[in-house]
Write a structure and sequence with these properties.
- The chain is of the alpha+beta class and 91 residues long.
- The chain has a single domain, classed as Alpha-Beta Plaits.
- The protein contains 2 helices and 4 strands; from the N terminus they run E-H-E-E-E-H.
- A two-stranded antiparallel sheet has the order 1-4.
Length: 91
């Protein structure tokens, strides 16, 4: 089970979560971050770092945002760059 970035990250894109990730599982999209489920080790360190509470364990994603499970997996393998450094947020 991996962690999933959901809707609150869109157009905010804080990178505090990516900085603490020990395995560089985060990928940088134009509007948000996503987590590569093949790289994520379910360590939970990213969750408290997200100021907009956008990160959930896969089995805890709210029903309205379940489509983000597939979205994270698809975007993470689409060639997006790894993000492991702090950037200015979009919001």
């Amino acid at each position: 089970m991996a962690y999933v970035v959901t809707e609150p990250c869109i157009d905010c894109r804080y990178t505090d979560c990516a900085v603490v990730c020990p395995v560089e599982a985060f990928r940088l999209d134009e509007r948000m971050l996503v987590i590569d489920p093949e790289v994520c080790i379910d360590c939970d360190v990213c969750v408290p770092e997200c100021p907009v509470e956008a990160i959930y364990p896969e089995d805890g994603v709210p029903e309205a945002w379940k489509h983000y499970i597939k979205l994270n997996a698809e975007k993470a393998t689409s060639g997006l760059p790894v993000i492991s450094q702090k950037l200015d947020p979009l919001c």
